[in-house]
Amino acid sequence: MKRYKLPNINQQADTVILANGEFPKHPITSSILNNCKYLVCCDGAINNLVKTNKEPNAIVGDCDSLSEENRVKYASIIHRIREQETNDLTKAVHFCLKQEKRKITILGATGKREDHTIANISLLCEYMQEAEVEMITDYGIFNGIESDSIFDSQPKQQVSIMSIDRNAITSENLVYKIENQIFTNWWQATLNEAEGNEFEIKTSGRTIVYRAFL
Known about the structure:
Blueprint: E1 2-4, E2 15-18, H1 27-35, E3 38-42, H2 46-49, E4 58-61, H3 68-73, E5 78-80, H4 88-98, E6 103-107, H5 114-122, H6 124-127, E7 132-136, E8 140-145, E9 149-152, E10 158-163, E11 170-172, E12 189-193, E13 198-202, E14 207-212
Parallel strand pairs: 1-9, 2-3, 2-6, 3-4, 4-5, 6-7
Antiparallel strand pairs: 7-8, 8-14, 9-13, 10-12, 10-14, 11-13
């Protein structure tokens, strides 16, 4: 059974994708960004990254959000993908997969436009077919699962479960126990709470699990 750990301020991610949402400001997300081994920017995200001392290894996207100054400065590492069937985040994930990078942390994928936020969160359930991907925001951690999983937690940590497929879900060690229940809308299993240092979600369908930072 797969276990999902909690991120910490000393975490050194193998590969980070920085999306063009809210720029990471939380101590944990800032540390992950600054200490990652390999950084891929969705094209618009570089406009905020240049205000820091961190340099990207690659910039990926359709380049419609890239400033002319940064287009010139980073010309050697820009990977322009013109097709419009996927968003820039998915283009960045596919780029990482081509580089044989299959353990990916996504930052900056929420905030700003709400439709982009919802789409990016839901895409976790597609990315998990090919890679180990987590999305960390300044407020918590999103993981996509489709089988029984254990999550590290802290007592009283807020937990939300969002079912993509209508498959039965059972929980262990959450305050509001779920027993073989099918949810038909994303809100129905939100705002739960961890009882201790781990909890379990049992499912056979695509499911998104969110743990809020305390």
